[in-house]
Amino acid sequence: MKLWALSDLHVGFAQNRALLEAMPDHGDDWLILAGDVGESAEHLSWTLDVLQPRFGRLIWVPGNHELWTRPREGGARGVAKYDELVALCRARRVLTPEDPYPLWEGEGGPHRLAPLFLLYDYSFRPDEVPASQALGWAMEHDILCADEHLLHPEPFPSREAWCQARCELTEARLERARALDGHPMVLINHFPLRRDHAVLPRIPRFSIWCGTRCTEDWHLRFRASVVVYGHLHIRGTRELDGVRFEEVSLGYPSQRRKPLDARGCLKQVLPHP
After folding, report:
1. pLDDT (tens digit, 9 = 90+) per residue, 45-102?
2. Which of 27, 43, 121, 222 has the fewest C-beta atoms under 10 angstroms from its C-beta?
3. What was the pLDDT predicted at 190?
4. Domain tally, the chain
């Protein structure tokens, strides 16, 4: 029984949907979906319905794209949109950041799995750039994330405030989990936990939409063995402080340098590959 991960499925693309439809049966294995499954509740529903029969358990955390509300479509915004997606997952017995952290007892276990929802606060910027100038700094290079128009923070006054609230809530939960037992943890978030991991060579100033400095030391504080994330669309494995960091994005079809098959698009989290 293995633990796998995949993020940034972007099932609005037909090639990505075809990969998921070709996914073989993995029996009792668990699969982490680390955000940006798609851009609507319908995309998330379709994906869970396709993958759930092929895995023993699914774990989902939101990316920024799932939280979008397009003006023409209307519907829930901000926290209400997130709550809607959590309810959709729970109706299918898919674990979310709002559920108790499960204990992984398969191969490579035991580990406590911690799905997180943290957002970003524009702090992944150079030290010399003030917070008030972060957007302008990115726009100097013609970079503006679509979140600025589509990801609404209601009832919070800003995405930064929503991020701060999520970090405080999650930090308290992780502290309780750490005190509960001595098991190492797998931290699961859509965005990277560290600024030095939010490196995008082609669009470096996009980093301000990639996380928060509040989580820089969480891999050490909370006894992480593995940190799973996506968002960057740059798959890879890093090691830092004895912790393995796995970027597990599938990404857009145009970004893939070589074809991936359904099995090859997954990254093994546990046991250590």
Report:
1. 999 999 999 999 999 999 999 999 988 877 899 999 999 999 999 999 999 999 999 9
2. 27
3. 98
4. 1
Q: Are strands 267-270 and 185-188 parallel, antiparallel or unpaired?
A: unpaired
Distance (Å, rounded) from C-alpha 161 to C-alpha 84?
Answer: 20
In the block, which residue shows the tokens 């519907």?
75
The answer for residues whose C-beta is within 8 angstroms of residue 73's C-beta and 6 or more apart is 40
Amino acid symbol at 172:
A
CA 170 to chain centre: 14
- CATH code of residue 63: 3.60.21.10
- Per-residue pLDDT averaged across 37-43, rounded? 96
Fill in the amino acid letter for 50.
Answer: V
Please give the model's pTM, rounded to 2 decimal places: 0.97
List, for residues 108-145, the tens digit of each pLDDT value: 999 999 999 999 999 999 999 999 999 999 999 999 99
Structure tokens at 262: 């359904």
